[in-house]
């Protein structure tokens, strides 16, 4: 491969600001042996302007001279001022792809920030360091790992489609493995939360005896270890993992691995679904008929808001993932892939962003959590306020 110089691209004048810039600093055209140069000269255009049609799939950006600053973003515009191509860190990016990258970056930031805040609040607030707090910490760690190990690969994959095939295969295997481990651990944690809430309502007097911190930690470790072991065949077998261009994520072709798909479903999703359905059906059945409850059970429901909080966390996760799973099931049923890339992208990243909603649910449903979060956020501005009441007074004072 060798660089090809195009003389009339040496300088480009921008009509809006009457300034010129070297387009070769923005785009480097590399000729490939199997490709052809698709350029058109339009002599009838005003001012003898030249118009070049650059096929993004034909030309690839040079690897050298990539800048390390976000300020190194250049634009190529035609005579009307519309953007034809962007150069981001030396990588040619269309405006449509830049929108995709922005959405993925936003989801990444939300996952990291909300998970870090959740972990910090639970770790620093004594009222949140309970059994449910441990389970919520595990969920927050899953979101944090998703924002640091999974979504950054999607950002790079969206920017640069020319990364080496062998590297892509290795990275895709690891990303697919990480995705499944995180989803499996989250689903298992939801199941243990349902069991915990069922015991808290059915046997409130024996709750502290049956649900100890040691037992809670064992269930969390079991969830992570089991998920990691069940997904090991992805790393140590010939299961193909492909980079999906519509969602910028790596995934397995589940239709070609039906035995493994059924095994994962029977060991992870089916037990969790049955357990969650039974436990929360029991809880809401008692909420509709409180006259059948004992005094200790009524007191537990009145004082413990975790029943509703955990329910909304599970519901938000289900609602976020249901559209993309329904679309996938529909495609399998009709044996045809829906040719709507934007739909696939939107539904998938709506599902991934479900982890960010937990923080907002905690704040809406738990006054203690909200107060602890406020105390953490205002501490740099009000260093003299340490308690919750002091934090509330600091907020009211306008600082």
The fraction of residues in strands falls at 5-15%
Shape: globular
Q: Low-confidence runs (pLDDT<50, min 5 residues)?
A: 1-84
* Biggest sheet strand line-up: 5-6-7
* Rounded mean pLDDT score: 76
Give the proportion of residues in helices.
Answer: 55-70%
Rounded to the nearest angstrom, the radius of gyration is: 27 Å
Summed up, the helix count is 13
* SSE string: EEEEEEEHHHHHHEEHHHHHHH
What structural class do helix, strand and pairing data support? Answer: mainly alpha
Number of strands: 9
Transmembrane segments: 98-122, 134-156, 176-195, 216-237, 257-284, 305-325, 345-365
Protein name: G_PROTEIN_RECEP_F1_2 domain-containing protein
Membrane topology: Multi-pass membrane protein
GO biological process, one term: cellular response to hormone stimulus
Give the gist of this structure:
Helix content is 59%, strand content 8%.
What does this structure look like?
With 399 residues, the chain is mostly helical. It has 3 domains: 2-93, no CATH class; 95-365, Rhopdopsin 7-helix transmembrane proteins (Up-down Bundle), CATH 1.20.1070; 366-399, no CATH class. Helices cover 59% and strands 8% of the residues. It has 13 helices and 9 strands. It has helices spanning 95-124, 131-159, 165-202, 207-210, 213-230, 232-236, 258-288, 295-303, 306-334, 341-352, 357-365, 367-378, 388-396; strands at residues 2-3, 12-14, 19-21, 30-31, 73-77, 83-88, 91-93, 241-244, 249-252. The strands form 4 sheets. The protein has a 3-stranded antiparallel β-sheet. Strand 8 and strand 9 form a beta hairpin. Helix 1 runs antiparallel to helix 2 (131-159), helix 2 packs antiparallel against helix 3 (165-202) and helix 12 (367-378) packs across helix 13. The longest helix has 38 residues, at 165-202. The protein is globular and about 65 Å long. The relative contact order is 0.08.
